[in-house]
Design brief:
The chain is an alpha/beta fold. Helix content is 40%, strand content 15%. It contains 17 helices and 13 strands. Helix 4 packs across helix 10. It is elongated, with a radius of gyration of 28 Å.
Amino acid sequence: MNNDEEISLLSAEIALLNVELNKKYALLKKKQKQCLTKLDINRYSRQIILPEIGVEGQKKLKTASVLIIGVGGLGCPSSMYLASAGVGTIGLVDYDEVELSNLHRQLLHAQCNVGMRKVESGKLSLNRMNEDVNIVVHDVQLDGHNSLDIFKQYDVIIDASDNLVTRYIINDTCVKAGKPLVSGSAIHCDGQLTVYNYKGSVCFRCLHPKPQSPETVGNCASVGVLGPVPGVIGVLQAMETIKIIVDHPNVLHNSLLLYDGVDCEFKKIKLTNVKRNGCICTKNPEDITITMDYEEFCGSKANDKFKTLNLLKENERITVLDLNELISKKNPFLMIDVRKKVEYDMCHLPFSINIQLSDLKSKDTRSKLIEKINSFSNMTPNLITICRRGNDSQRAVDELKKYTEITDNVKWIKDVIGGLHEWSMQVDENFPIY
């Protein structure tokens, strides 16, 4: 045998040994996942000594996988506590980027990460907390076409989303895939928590067979939220998830927990444990389809942080550029900012007056408004309404046109398309956006 043949034979043997070595490494990792190392015992000892967890419970946590939909106000605290508790695999689903307005409540993200994809920012922070946890990112907008393939990879699903479309997609996919769903919500100073589809419990559709009207559903961007509120609910989501993983008997299913942050009160409401007749959760999983048009069903889009209404005709509205031209030509007009006082106090155009939308129905308010209109001596002004995004301002135009004592004393009543947000985008970049 010459040198070339011998080298070739040795190379082949090394390749076979590398294959065998890789198999041994994979087997080692698998065995390590099934037992607790010295480092695991040291790190998680404070929870392992609890009878509710113990060694077997910690092993279950180590081999468990949890999917969190939404890396925002709820997803941040829930993922932080699950990673810190030693959950083996955590999946993060989000399609959005970190914004400055997120930081007061979404504590995984730092100011230096503004503009970064939320899933990547979340992974960086979680890896810093616990490098032994496997963080899987799904940088996608969840829909009925991709949800099932993603959910199949995980044991427990956490709904940390902020819109109805996604909530229905998550619910239906969990029912079809047979996954327990830990659902939370937080807005203003209030929060809710429950567990759906767990050991025969009801699902989200049992309680909400039809979605609420889009106009009645708020979110953090439109209504606001105090940062600790999603923190409280997100931590409780992590708690219920841990209880599911270790098979604790007192999981919050068939009950709804309500949190009032202002009065610091928790209330637990017992839900019926009888599934609604004809609900999706009463069907065989094979017969469940999740390819319906969820956005049409809900009357809104999953990625709409701000819903846009079209209540007025084109000739009943002006653009911010039209408004700027009216100002430059010094045409007489009276502008009513119909936002809440707290929003008006944050920022407003100096030539506007604040009358909240709800106050326009008041006769006293309208009388004061007529006085303002009549103060334009020898001139008939235009009446303009404005708000944050151009929705309530349209409602204000509809309300004002009901009263002849107002319409008879102005040339026309119109609202500003896109509101103050559009003013900041197109006219004055220094005007605050919130």
